[in-house]
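Take a record:
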Amino acid sequence: MRIINTTIFLLLGFISLQAQLYSDSISVNFFLLDECRISQNISGEINKVKAEFDQASFNYICYFPNTSSTEIKVKAFIEEYKIDMPYLTDYDKFKTKFYGATMAPEVVVYDEKNQTVLYHGRIDNSYDQVGSRRRVVTSKDLQLALSAIINNEEINPKETQTIGCFLNK
């Protein structure tokens, strides 16, 4: 009887460890530039991702780190591309440096409680190089990462190469 109780305890412990793969405080941080054609073109996908995963209670925010992205231009960008999430400028590059963003568009999925980057890179593979847009998107990397979090699975890959416009340093 003692062996059975120990086995059940160990199994329950394993199940509870599995349940804690990610915390309940996940932020999805987009880095965008209003003048970047790739940021403009990816805005529809950003809206789709937010709509699809809105029930998962992720915290979404857009950062505009370049000083050329004035408050007026950023607001116009948000309105034109109908991005329904909070946005901030990041002229001091605090968030840009913290998350290690270097290009736009770029996304960092971050576990706030565990202070861990879960995914860093592109939103999808709609561009294979600057100026060369794919006819067919074959990998929706951000969707895969967020689905993995919801399903309590490992995110794979955890990082992808971003193609876009460079952020000012």
Q: What stands out?
A: The first strand starts at residue 26 and ends at 31. The longest helix spans residues 2-19. Strands lie at 26-31, 59-64, 87-89, 103-104, 106-111, 116-121, 127-129, 132-133, 165-166. The mean pLDDT is 90.
